[in-house]
Amino acid sequence: MLEKLENRYSGNVQEVVEERKNQHELNQKLKSPRVMTSEGEIITGKLRDVNAPEGAIVGTAVSAGVVDGVARVNLRPDRRMQSSIVAKS
Fold this sequence. Notes:
Distance between the termini: 62 Å
Number of helices: 2
Order of helices and strands: HH
């Protein structure tokens, strides 16, 4: 089989296979970004020194703007939260 491929391919197939194996090993070590925009921009954020009260959830904003309202944090994903949002059909 390799002999047939070497006849169709102008390079050394064994070298190509080794290069691809090495590249595959390097690719396995890569980490995907947490946030990427539809334009391909990778967004990274760093937390500043924040004086937050005990038990506060501190994070990095991912959307521009401010929203007023009640936030519900589900600390038990295995349990379903009851929603107070009702959509009209």
